[in-house]
Amino acid sequence: MARSDHTGMTFIDPLPARGEVRDIAPGVKWARLPLPFRLNHVNVWLLPEADGYTLIDCGVEGAEMRALWDEMLAGPLGGQPITRFVATHGHTDHVGLAGYLCERFDIPYVSTLGEWLWPRLRHLEAAEPARPQLRRFMTQHGCDEALIQSMIAARPTFVAALGPPPAALVRLVDGQIIRMGGFDWRVMVAAGHADEHASFYCDETRVLIAGDQILSHISPVVGVFPNEPDGDPLADYLASLPRFAELPEDTLVLPSHGTPFRGLHARVNWLASHHDERLDKLLGLLDQPVTTSEAAHRLFTRAMAEGAGMLAVAETLSHLHRLVGQGRLAKSQRDDGVMIFSPLRG
Predict the structure, then answer these.
(1) Tens digits of per-residue pLDDT, 136-153?
(2) Which of the four, 38, 81, 170, 186, has the lowest number of CB atoms within 10 Å?
(3) Angle (nearest 5°) at CA 243 between 240 and 249
(4) Distance between CA atoms of residues 100 and 34, nearest Å
């Protein structure tokens, strides 16, 4: 069943129920897994092979997720094993259970180099008691103690959701052709949401496994985080969009969150316009020098009030850095070490 909206996009409904695995495209099955986060689900894709399934992304570590995979493997997947794991990127909701699955089935972890390194570094950091770099980063951007404590308090949930990552990988690179589910898929590596995010496009079936790079209802998180405090990921993300606009308009897009859809060009145009509008809005809110936290309270008032402060600060900072890169803001540091962003006039 399909439904359209005013944007020109057509969505594929209904959503799979818990434990259901549904055919969604030639050589691709779809399952929807629960997450213990604000974004409460992730889509994963299973591509039938001669001896089992290639799995793209897998959900988080935890007893509930392991039990759900047991249920799907024994039921709708007919007792067939997973023979290869492929990661769109290394964020916890996509690879948290990857180490367990790769060890259980003795299968390779296939990803770009950056998206193998990212979860390994995060797993090592989990041994640090309070991540002092997080406190330094938040303090440097004007966050108060209550917000910093809320970030530290949320940390155990994320730490528990990322299991030990695999110790080796089969490396993907941009432009590579990988055979999955009986079809050839071109690897499209892009930055912004993650350092080396991989999407997969099949020209024969006109299907794009988009990961988080192109989502159907929300914009992916494009944020500046403590590991790269001076980064400009929004520039990278915006630069990636024209590559997806070159794919056919009737491409079936399979996103990691939300609903599969057609209308790729409309969605790419919306994402580009959305960030341009947010940049203009943010600049319009800055009538005097501000900290990142002050700017985040103006740009993401609701998110800051509802406990999503880390992501709101990170997203705000990515937009502030893009405005600096465009020559529309100046960045400086106060005597107390706090970063200040000032509008440029004239």
Answers:
(1) 999 999 999 988 888 888
(2) 38
(3) 125
(4) 17
Residue type, 13: D
247 Cβ contact partners less than 8 Å away, ≥ 6 residues apart: 201, 206, 208, 264
Q: What is the residue type of 146?
A: A
Q: Say whether pTM exceeds 0.90.
A: yes
Q: Residue 48: CB partners within 8 Å, gap ≥ 6? A: 27, 29, 181, 182
How would you classify residue 89: left for phi > 0, otherwise alpha for psi between -120 and 50, otherwise beta? beta
Quote the CA–CA distance of 205 and 106 in Å, as a whole number.
30
Q: Specify whether the CB–CB gap between 143 and 309 falls below 8 A.
A: yes
Helices (H), the chain: 63-74, 92-95, 98-105, 113-125, 132-140, 145-161, 233-245, 264-285, 292-299, 301-305, 309-325
Closest to 245 in 3D by CA, of 264, 223, 270: 264
pLDDT for the residue 207:
98
Task: Give the DSSP letter of residue 229.
Answer: T
DSSP notation for 320-333: HHHHHHTTSEEEEE
Q: Count Cβ neighbours within 10 Å for each residue of 308-321 and write b for 16 or more, e otherwise.
A: bbbbbbbbbbbbbb
Q: Which of 296, 190, 300 lies closest to 243 in space, CA to CA?
A: 190
Looking at the predicted structure, is the pLDDT value of residue 3 above 70? no
* SS3 (DSSP) at 149: helix
**Nearest residue to 150 via CA among 322, 14, 27, 293:** 293
CB atoms within 10 A of CB 281: 12
Q: How far apart are CA 115 and CA 34, in angstroms?
A: 22
CA angle 122, 57, 17 (to 5 degrees): 125
Structure tokens at 197: 């995010």
Q: What is the pLDDT of residues 42-74, one digit of tens each?
A: 999 999 999 999 999 999 999 999 999 999 999
* pLDDT digit string, tens, across residues 308-344: 888 999 999 999 999 999 999 999 999 999 999 999 9
Structure tokens given for 248: 């056919």
For residue 27, give the H/E element and its range: none
Strand partners, 337: none
